[in-house]
Amino acid sequence: MADEVPPEAPQPVPGPLAEALRNMPLDPPKGVLSTTGLIGSPPPPASGARAWGVDWRSRAGFFGIPVVHVAFGRDAQGRLRVAKGIIAVGQFGIGVVTLAQFGVGLLGGAGQLIFGTVAIAQFAVGTLLAIGQFAAGYIAVGQFVLGYYALGQAGWASALWSLTHHDPNAGAFFQRWVQWLNWKLQ
User: Fold this and answer.
1) What is the pLDDT along the chain (186 residues), one digit of tens a residue?
2) Is the distance from CB of 44 to CB of 35 less than 8 angstroms?
3) Which of 41, 97, 111, 161 is the most exposed, fewest CB within 10 Å of its CB?
């Protein structure tokens, strides 16, 4: 072991690109990382400034409603921006399909607290399907569930499959879905 020679340090690659990379500053460029460290998040408002964030709408629309609306932050009056579009993306959103922290989606949505026909969220409320840590809907899947058919760690349902309750109707219902998904994924 004492006779081992340490490997040589790697030699720098010659060329203009390598030289540019070696001379690149280590600090990220402004606007890439916010003070919160999240890529793409807006910086907090400067003291005294009221408007901050993003409010972008697609040019295409349907009866005055944009196809895509992305909004977060506050407007010039200090009010929270709400995304309203066929596809709504933001901290607060209302749309046919919504991707928001808090939102309502006519067909569905994903986020932290979502109401819709199909809801996928930490707190999901779906008239048809809810998937989330706390899920409530006709079909509810999550840790804590409330619904007609429910699959979760704990919950209340007409047909519940949980750690402590194994309703045969719930088992048969969810088994059909698993078989269908398995067939679709093959």
Assistant:
1) 556 666 665 666 566 666 665 665 555 444 444 444 444 555 555 555 577 888 888 888 888 899 999 998 888 888 899 999 999 999 999 999 999 999 999 999 999 999 999 999 999 999 999 999 999 999 999 999 999 999 999 999 999 999 898 999 998 999 988 888 777 666
2) yes
3) 41
Q: Residue 61 is encoded by which pair of tokens?
A: 């629309």
3-state SS class at 20: helix
Helix (H, G, I), strand (E, B) or coil at 127: strand
**pTM to 2 decimal places:** 0.68
Q: What is the 3-state secondary structure (H, E, C) of 87-120?
A: EEEEEEEEEEEEEEEEEEEEEEEEEEEEEEEEEE
How far apart are alpha carbons 88 and 103 in whole angstroms?
Answer: 9
